[in-house]
């Protein structure tokens, strides 16, 4: 049985520079999209510890659920705010393990990846110009469209493009905690503080590995975070099961009427399907 630990694994997912840019087959073919709008395959880059006896590491499941949309690329012109989400892995015996992920963007330092993205844009633009070139003998359509070379459409298509000599390329990366209990607020604080420490110009008081080790092997439910304490509390036997998610977000996402209708359906034991991106 699992000991009373706060987290079982610390995981990092992102771009594997050795394998390069691989299309994400789970997202379907999206070659008609500009390269910056395509999704690429992410990999589990590191995890600690390597394995725990009571919770075997499922690399495929964790990799897919940490970054369900695969890798995303952006430039300095795009918004790059970190995003947090949670997930659950349910095993065949019905037992559950919880995952909490913080996805952010970091600058691509690999020249090979930047060159590959530039090449994809050259190929995409060449194919687009061939497919959308007007007929050579149709001068009337050119004059009515106002542009025989199709540059007006090409400019629209090339918006959000990437020029290796001008733009800075960023790629998504994810840090994740795999836990036996759903301490959502605490996990979010831990991941946000770790990310803040990585991006801050001032180094943290202790090496980041010290904080990660404390999270994984600490017996207390009060931790010394990078920038402040993090406290968790297990419910007692007489209390309701742990539910650490803010109910306010449900009302913000669905609205009051839909929440009431959803609650009514739950009380009447109707089948309920929630569909989301």
From TrEMBL:
Xref: InterPro entries: cDENN_dom, DEN5A/B, DENN_C, Tripartite_DENN, uDENN_dom
- List the SMART domains: DENN, uDENN
What's a Pfam family in this record? DENN
UniProt domain UDENN: residue ranges: 24-277
UniProt KW DNA-binding keyword = no
Top-rank taxon of the source lineage equals Eukaryota
Give a GO molecular function annotation for the protein.
guanyl-nucleotide exchange factor activity
For the keyword Transmembrane helix, the answer is no
One GO biological process term is: retrograde transport, endosome to Golgi
Keywords in UniProt for this one?
Guanine-nucleotide releasing factor
Example of a GO cellular component annotation carried by this entry: trans-Golgi network
Supply the PANTHER family for this chain: DENN DOMAIN-CONTAINING PROTEIN 5A, PINSTRIPE, ISOFORM A
Q: What is this protein called?
A: DEN5A protein
In its UniProt entry, the species of origin is given as: Oxylabes madagascariensis (white-throated Oxylabes)
